[in-house]
Amino acid sequence: MRDMxxxxxxxxxxxxxxxxxxxxxxxxxxxxxxxxxxxDDDNDxxxxxxxxxxxxxxxxxxxxxxxxxxCSMNGKVFIFGGNGSEDLAQxxxxxxxxxxTLATIPNPRYGAACAVVDGRVYLVGGLPRxxxxxxxxxxxxxxxxxxxxxxAAPMLADRYSLAATALDGQLYAIGGRNGTGNxxxxxxxxxxxxxxxxxxxxxPVGVHSPAAATSNNSIFVFGGFxxxxxxxGSVGLVYEYDESIxxxxxxxDMPTARHGLTTSVVDSRIYAIGGIDGFGTALSTxxxxxxxxxxxxxxxxxxxxxxxxxxxxxxxxxxVFGGREDDQVPIILSSIAAYAPSxxx
Length: 345
Description:
The protein is mainly beta. The chain has a domain at 51-72 and 150-343: 6 Propeller (Neuraminidase). The protein contains 2 helices and 27 strands. The protein has helices spanning 22-28, 32-35, and strands at residues 18-21, 55-60, 69-73, 76-80, 89-93, 98-101, 113-117, 120-124, 139-143, 148-152, 163-167, 170-174, 187-191, 196-200, 211-215, 218-222, 225-226, 233-234, 238-242, 247-251, 262-266, 269-273, 286-290, 295-298, 310-314, 317-321, 335-339. It has a 5-stranded mixed beta sheet with strand order 1-6-5-4-3. A 4-stranded antiparallel beta sheet has the order 2-27-26-25, with no helix packed on it. A hairpin with a 4-residue loop joins strand 9 (139-143) and strand 10 (148-152). The longest helix has 7 residues, at 22-28. The radius of gyration is 18 Å and the shape is globular. The two termini are 34 Å apart. The model is unreliable at 1-17 and 23-45 (pLDDT under 50).
């Protein structure tokens, strides 16, 4: 089912979905910012959201899906996999409102995670289309300058519904769920220079479907679903990783416990968006975390709840892609919503 709703309190910024092949983009010179020949204002693209708007619908994602992996780099948002489109890789340009289809993912997957390290996107974990109950350790590495994939060393543990983020040129794979359905406490770090993984201090509590973000040179992990054999419920737990001593510190809980959320960073503040609560309801909740003061502020919500969606930050805007509106009677959303934290005071 297609979602044609307007996200937010003002309309007028909607752009029709457009797409083209990556080869055509290269030919037309539209990938300059990704290939490194970018101009000085690439980090301040034309704003698709009007002055004073907080949320606005700016386009659509096709095909619609959830359980995608998403991350952003050089003014673009990358969306990988998802249920029913496990081998699909796409790039969204918010300035142009343009979708590009990228080279096919070597190891098709959904429920994976991704992070950017040194200009490359690392896609980790997840579930393949087939066989059932098989969990991936494989790591696929996407190079946007050549639209090509390579392989990195596999993770130490198979996991899906994990979180991933980067810090100091290294990739962290955090939590998730294994092939037996158990929530994982395990954390591992990948060093591209040696193409190797090492275990790090585990999370205090095992969770699947948390979110992770890096801000102020620290890694933060938010929420997730926890319990024995993952039979518990949504949590609002927040942990900060101290890389210097390999230790997780407890921070102030999210006001709203949830899993299947996304987190995005704008000006060091972390925005926890959507997710599912302990009753299986998709949430419209948006909460802002201030790492400097360890405090939370409730912000303007989405018009419709979203869970297992994608998100990416470009400039000072957060883009939210697709997801599921309700966990009991699922409606998969197609809309792309843009959020302007600077207007949400």
